[in-house]
Design goal:
Largest sheet: 7 strands, mixed
Radius of gyration: 29 Å
CATH topology of the largest domain: Spore Coat Polysaccharide Biosynthesis Protein SpsA, Chain A
Number of helices: 8
Strand content: 15-25%
Distance between the termini: 113 Å
Length: 318
């Protein structure tokens, strides 16, 4: 029995035809309310001529096995279930020889700006620029630490949200063929395997409400629960009211996450400073002692040689 069901949605034409080959929407089979929103937004914005909805029966209903490079395990948590479903999407994209795909989670909310002509040209240009290298582009996220790339894009160091991610074939083939994504949280895997290589657009083109879910209970599995990141992250989202409305909270994060950037780089400077002090305080004296030891040994060898030479002299009486 297959754990997934695909449904093809077609339009006469789309604003991103010739730029994005296929849009995938990942949803649970039983999420009927979200299905209405999916159909409504795909019909309203008509981004591409074709889109596929991937209906997931879930690990509780359908037994799934997920494998990385070292082991295979049965899927037993929602984060691993999402990652398994993502690999199913990559496989379908590879089978159909797609060059560029956009993967949406079923709670995506499209910005009216997405069909702006300049935005379309910006997306087209970055895809062309990355024809020969892997491209992972977030059309919406909650950025925390980023670096400048150009006027339209920023490099992502740390962000939350993978509800609207564009991939070229070099990227999704690498993920699938090397089994990079398995037995872990999909969002965390993106941050880990593509640190500093993900891009984000300068403004949110796809939104997502941050609401409590079963998936959130597993957010801290990667750090053993030490950081309690899920709790403080959701507290911040509630403070910004992104659990109720995507704006103005999301744009505030885009605008002011530079503060987090500043604090991050200050922290890096402090860490480098103290590491430098450790090196100077401990490693350097050891190195000096080692050099002095070598010099001492050379002197001792030189003295012994001179003594051996002096024994060969003959003294004759005058």
């Amino acid at each position: 029995m297959s754990c997934y069901r695909k449904e093809l949605i077609t339009n006469d034409k789309g604003s991103y035809d010739g730029i994005i080959d296929m849009i995938y929407v990942l949803t649970m089979e039983k999420s009927k309310k979200r299905h209405q929103s999916i159909y409504s937004q795909l019909n309203k914005f008509k981004l591409t001529k074709n889109a596929k909805i991937m209906f997931n029966k879930g690990y509780k209903t359908c037994k799934k096995i997920s494998c990385n490079k070292y082991e295979c395990q049965q899927v037993k948590t929602p984060p691993h279930d999402i990652t398994h479903a993502m690999n199913e999407i990559y496989k379908d994209a590879i089978d159909n020889n797609y060059k560029t795909i956009l993967i949406l989670e079923d709670d995506f909310i499209v910005s009216e700006r997405i069909n702006n002509n300049q935005v379309i040209m910006d997306i087209k240009k970055i895809i062309n620029d990355y024809k020969h290298s892997e491209l992972i582009l977030k059309l919406g996220c909650l950025p925390f630490v980023t670096m400048p790339y150009n006027n339209e894009y920023r490099r992502v160091i740390l962000s939350a949200g993978a509800h609207a991610v564009l991939y070229n074939d070099i990227a999704f083939r690498k993920i699938y063929n090397k089994k990079l994504f398995a037995l872990d949280d999909y969002d965390a895997l993106l941050n880990r395997h593509f640190l500093g290589r993900e891009l984000m657009y300068k403004e949110p083109l796809m939104y997502q409400l941050v609401q409590e879910s079963e998936n959130m209970k597993y957010w801290d599995d990667w750090n053993g629960g030490l950081l309690n990141s899920g709790e403080w992250f959701f507290s911040l989202m509630k403070y910004l009211r992104i659990d109720k409305s995507v704006e103005p909270g999301t744009s505030l994060v885009y605008k002011y996450h530079g503060i987090a950037n500043f604090l991050f780089f200050i922290l890096m400077i402090i860490i480098i400073y103290y590491l430098g002090r450790i090196l100077i305080g401990f490693v350097l004296p050891l190195k000096i002692m080692e050099l002095k030891g070598k010099k001492r040994r050379r002197k001792m060898k030189g003295g012994a040689k001179n003594r051996r030479v002096s024994k060969n002299y003959c003294h004759y009486p005058l």
